[in-house]
Write a structure and sequence with these properties.
Elements: E1 4-8, H1 13-24, E2 28-33, H2 36-45, E3 50-54, H3 60-68, E4 79-82, H4 98-126, E5 131-135, H5 148-168, E6 174-180, E7 183-184, H6 187-191, H7 196-203, E8 209-210, H8 211-222, E9 232-235
Parallel strand pairs: 1-2, 1-4, 2-3, 4-5, 5-6, 6-9, 7-8
Bound molecules: NADPH dihydro-nicotinamide-adenine-dinucleotide phosphate and 2-hydroxyethylsulfonic acid.
């Protein structure tokens, strides 16, 4: 099995940190995202073969085209990290712009499915020891106010990961849902449409996970002995836990 990883959403956060972590171990990398200049900058930092693709995962034709035209050197991908994703609209459901719900579904569900569908033949050819890591979230299992469609897209990621495992049994391809909790990346900046104060406030005075913490988990999962499949890995900062149930009172 060749050490070649395809990482979506490599321009920021977990994806960028994962690129650096796998590069440390000599993996060749296919890195995608919409911000081309960031991909070029990351490529220039890495000391391994890197193929960058300006790609919006919502565009199924573009995804299929990108995968079918991978240069020969990168064609035998053995790890797919389905990381591209976002949350929008932290306000409650009644106040959300419908477009924001559609964007989350189109990215976190349709986009992830687009890339998976395009990459499955390659991963199956790469066979035993290959892996798909889908980035879910604690929001996929635990409800909280303002999570509405975001959490629901991540519940899809969890169930899709389990179902994929069933259909890939016998191919040797592993599937893992990595479900992080609070992690400091550009995630909250995106969620609040550029509110740096909101992002800073969320992460201040506590110790969130870092992008590198999650990249390390991805590396762990992908480099376990071939006979081990971590189905789901839920990771929270020690200083984050659940709240009591909310009760409406007179
Ligand atoms: P960032 O905002 O830092 O990174 C998100 C990445 O996704 C960027 O590289 C962005 O690239 C890419 N992306 C977004 N939309 C698209 C699109 N339509 N097509 C292609 N790429 C896209 O956030 P994180 O690193 O935190 O997020 C990565 C994943 O982790 C997401 O799936 C998120 O839901 C999940 N997650 C995050 C947590 C957190 O607390 N940070 C916790 C749990 C899960 P570009 O804009 O260049 O296209
Ligand atoms: C992101 C983590 O807690 O904001 O998926 O939902 S959280």
């Amino acid at each position: 099995m060749k050490k070649i990883a395809f990482i979506t959403g490599a321009t920021s956060g977990f994806g960028r940190a994962a690129a650096k972590r796998f590069a440390q171990d000599g993996w060749a990398l296919v890195l995608s995202g919409r911000r081309e200049e960031r991909l070029a900058a990351l490529k220039s930092e890495l000391d391994v073969p890197v193929h960058t693709i300006k790609l919006d995962v919502r565009d199924s034709d573009a995804v299929a085209q990108a995968v079918s035209s991978l240069p020969a050197e990168f064609a035998e991908v053995s790890l797919l990290v389905n990381n591209a994703g976002l949350a929008l609209a932290p306000q409650g459901a009644p106040d959300v712009d419908l477009k924001d719900w559609h964007t989350m579904i189109d990215t976190n569900v349709t986009g992830l499915v687009n890339v998976t569908h395009a990459m499955l033949p390659t991963l199956i050819r790469s066979g035993r020891g290959s892996s798909i890591i889908n980035v879910g979230s604690i929001a996929g299992s635990w409800p909280y106010p303002g999570s509405h469609v975001y959490g629901a897209t991540k519940a899809f990621v969890e169930q899709f990961s389990y179902n994929l495992r069933c259909d890939l049994q016998g191919t040797g391809v592993r599937v893992t849902d990595i479900a992080p909790g609070l992690a400091e990346t550009e995630f909250t900046l995106v969620r609040t449409k550029g509110n740096q104060d909101a992002s800073d406030n969320l992460y201040s005075g506590t110790e969130p996970l870092s992008a590198e913490d999650i990249a390390e988990q991805m590396f762990y999962v992908a480099t376990l002995p071939e006979h081990i499949n971590i189905n789901r890995l839920e990771v929270m900062p020690t200083r984050q836990a659940w709240s009591p149930f909310a009760i409406d009172r007179d």
